[in-house]
Amino acid sequence: MTLPPLAASSRTLPATTYDAILLAGFGGPEGQDDVIPYLRNVTRGRGIPDERLEEVAHHYRHFGGISPINDQNRDLKAALEAEIAKRGLGLPVYWGNRFWAPYFADALKELHADGHRKVLVLVTTSFSSYSGCRAYREDLATALAETGLEGELELDKVRQYFDHPGFVNPNIDAVRGGLASLKEQGLLEGAHVMFATHSIPTAAADVSGPREALPSGEPVATGGENEWYAGGGWYVEQQRAVAALIMDKVADEFPDVPWSLVFQSRSGSPEIPWLEPDINDAIEKLDDAVKGLVISPIGFVSDHMEVAWDLDNEAVETCEERGIVPVRVPTVGVDPQYVAGLIDLVEERHVATPGDTPREREALTDLGPWQDVCPTDCCLGRAAKATIANA
Ligand SMILES: CC1=C(CCC(=O)O)c2cc3nc(cc4[nH]c(cc5[nH]c(cc1n2)c(C)c5CCC(=O)O)c(CCC(=O)O)c4C)C(CCC(=O)O)=C3C
Ligand SMILES: [Fe+2]
């Protein structure tokens, strides 16, 4: 599966000169009093009563109402600033979130007040879906309208980077490390690798990415029989490609280890189908021969609440019930390769002087390099809203 070359190239923008970088995050609560207001933000427009929100608040409550995600983005911002300084690029980095302070609108006002007009956005998600790409583009367009900065601030966004070496290489290292740990424990014989990403409604998965070339769903690669529907669309296609690539890269040291792509953190009403298998169901159905499990959360870029709770708590417990030794390996976080990769992505788009040659675009699968701008109906499964970074 590849994008039609014409469509892909018409969605590749020429390099230009930017004034600043905006790191666009999800946002999380930072104390017990933040939890319900935060969940109201995340579920905005769906009229969910506070009593129901309290039910999904338990994991935040357990950690004092604090999600680690904001500190992780503060650390990432500092690491990006250091890498930019090292390269002498002279681009300041601002930070804003979809669902918690500093909000996108705060960041846009700050950017404008500081005299910046042309901004390149780096998003903290690597795959293509409504939640991972379009929603960020919509919320940034909404923030531009809210702040009255439409026409004043120009916002472009770097491409989704699921197959960029800066994202893939730390994940290869992590899986290699996880398998090495199982080997040390004498569990390599019965090893299995699960790549975990966020479940989304299958209807959203099926329309993820550019519509003219949507892949149809195929069974997940488990090396065995699988009754689960893992979704069509580019979201799952990209994840299958990255997972297969990682396994291919570790095969020099760890050949023939069985693996699967699994999903986590499903929410919403049970009648609506979401991507399956859920990681816990998948662990329960593992063959008895499996003794050790490497869990690689490739769906996320930091060890935030979805990782700390849904994997380190729930999935680890499911492993223990099955007598399987779990090794949950880290997300990219502030791995120097990831940080450098994000700045490589900036340098594909940003040149010091108009006319300079930009950095070459890297991609490790034949699905990429992904598009810089999305067609108007990309990842669109609901009423269209204004977006930034569309063709
Ligand atoms: C694809 C995807 C990513 C990865 C891409 C990306 O990173 O953006 C992601 C990340 C995250 N999701 C997060 C938290 C939440 N997601 C929720 C709800 C939902 N996520 C969805 C999808 C995704 N989510 C969907 C389809 C829903 C259903 C509601 C809807 O239709 O939109 C809810 C509501 C309560 C609930 O339903 O459980 C919460 C609290 C946090 C913060 C963790 C922290 O605090 O550390 C992060 C990074
Ligand atoms: Fe989420």
From TrEMBL:
<keyword id="KW-0350">Heme biosynthesis</keyword>
<keyword id="KW-0627">Porphyrin biosynthesis</keyword>
<dbReference type="GO" id="GO:0005737">
    <property type="term" value="C:cytoplasm"/>
</dbReference>
<dbReference type="InterPro" id="IPR001015">
    <property type="entry name" value="Ferrochelatase"/>
</dbReference>
<keyword id="KW-0408">Iron</keyword>
<dbReference type="GO" id="GO:0046872">
    <property type="term" value="F:metal ion binding"/>
</dbReference>
<dbReference type="GO" id="GO:0004325">
    <property type="term" value="F:ferrochelatase activity"/>
</dbReference>
<keyword id="KW-0479">Metal-binding</keyword>
<feature type="binding site">
    <location>
        <position position="198"/>
    </location>
    <ligand>
        <name>Fe(2+)</name>
    </ligand>
</feature>
<protein>
    <recommendedName>
        <fullName>Coproporphyrin III ferrochelatase</fullName>
        <ecNumber>4.99.1.9</ecNumber>
    </recommendedName>
</protein>
<feature type="binding site">
    <location>
        <position position="67"/>
    </location>
    <ligand>
        <name>Fe-coproporphyrin III</name>
    </ligand>
</feature>
<dbReference type="InterPro" id="IPR033644">
    <property type="entry name" value="Ferrochelatase_C"/>
</dbReference>
<dbReference type="GO" id="GO:0006783">
    <property type="term" value="P:heme biosynthetic process"/>
</dbReference>
<comment type="pathway">
    <text>Porphyrin-containing compound metabolism; protoheme biosynthesis.</text>
</comment>
<comment type="similarity">
    <text>Belongs to the ferrochelatase family.</text>
</comment>
<dbReference type="InterPro" id="IPR033659">
    <property type="entry name" value="Ferrochelatase_N"/>
</dbReference>
<keyword id="KW-0963">Cytoplasm</keyword>
<feature type="binding site">
    <location>
        <position position="306"/>
    </location>
    <ligand>
        <name>Fe(2+)</name>
    </ligand>
</feature>
<comment type="function">
    <text>Involved in coproporphyrin-dependent heme b biosynthesis. Catalyzes the insertion of ferrous iron into coproporphyrin III to form Fe-coproporphyrin III.</text>
</comment>
<keyword id="KW-0456">Lyase</keyword>
<dbReference type="Pfam" id="PF00762">
    <property type="entry name" value="Ferrochelatase"/>
</dbReference>
<feature type="binding site">
    <location>
        <position position="136"/>
    </location>
    <ligand>
        <name>Fe-coproporphyrin III</name>
    </ligand>
</feature>
